[in-house]
Write a structure and sequence with these properties.
Elements (H helix, E strand, L loop, with lengths): L1 E3 L2 E3 L5 E5 L12 E8 L4 E5 L1 E4 L2 E5 L7 E11 L15 E13 L2 H12 L7 H4 L8 H17 L25 H8 L2 H8 L4 H6 L8 H7 L3 H7 L2
Length: about 240
């Protein structure tokens, strides 16, 4: 078999195309299912596949816990046809390993960015570097791709114990100085999925009411940037 691509970010969720060799094709396509087994040093993942042509499969890459090269095994499962006199257990199917291929899980730019953003929460001037993105004219399609990959990376991250959008500050504190928060960042860039993730985190309610140094709350930033759907989300 051939895998394309042969690497994926730690948070997975990309489509892997599997090109089958002649010897891996089943004579009876209707009675055979294919699975991919990802075997790493500490985790294993089993994912199903969909057939896109007679010799091509597609699978959704699973997330993984560390950067490493894993072994991917293509397995076939032959479904049994029950007969009246047959033991039902014998019809569960036969599993056969067909081929193996190396596959890499890597830390990509979105994952690096997610780690950076999490580390800035509650830090004075922590998001100044991210504000430099305002000077870049990022195309809409690229922003949508960034939103999707960054949200996946944030979901995959293990957040530090006690972490909140306001850092280590008490989330019920009323003595909060104006500051740029992660919600301001996502509102400015129109990152809808990232904002949905942030709103589920500790400190979100307080961050929604917090103005930055220019006097704008996250919802006001979204409105000024013309992100209507995001503004509606932030004002629910």
């Amino acid at each position: 078999m051939k895998l394309n691509p042969q690497q994926a970010p730690l948070y997975g969720h990309c489509v892997i195309t599997v090109q089958l060799a002649d010897e891996e094709l089943a004579a009876d396509e209707e009675g055979v299912d294919y699975f991919l087994l990802f075997a790493g040093s500490t985790q294993r993942h089993l994912t199903s596949t969909l057939r896109s042509s007679h010799d091509t499969l597609e699978a959704l890459c699973p997330p993984h816990d560390c950067c490493e090269v894993v072994l991917v095994t293509l397995c076939s499962v032959t479904r049994g046809i029950p007969e009246a006199s047959e033991d039902p257990k014998s019809c569960l199917g036969r599993v056969a390993p067909l081929a193996e291929h190396r596959f890499s899980f890597v830390q990509d730019l979105a994952f690096d960015m997610a780690q950076f953003l999490v580390s800035t929460a509650g830090r004075v001037d922590g998001l100044d570097g991210a504000l430099l993105l305002d000077e870049c004219q990022i195309p809409l399609q690229e922003c949508e791709r960034l939103d999707e990959s960054l949200a996946l990376a944030l979901h995959h991250l293990v957040l530090p114990s006690g972490w909140s959008l306001l850092g280590n500050k008490l989330t019920n504190s009323t003595d909060l100085n104006p500051q740029e928060t992660l919600l301001h960042f996502s509102a400015r860039r129109g990152l809808f999925r990232v904002t949905q993730f942030l709103l589920q985190q500790p400190g979100a309610r307080e961050a929604l009411r917090l103005s930055n140094r220019q006097g704008y709350t996250p919802s006001a930033v979204a409105a000024l940037r013309g992100h209507k759907c995001l503004h509606e989300l932030l004002t629910k």
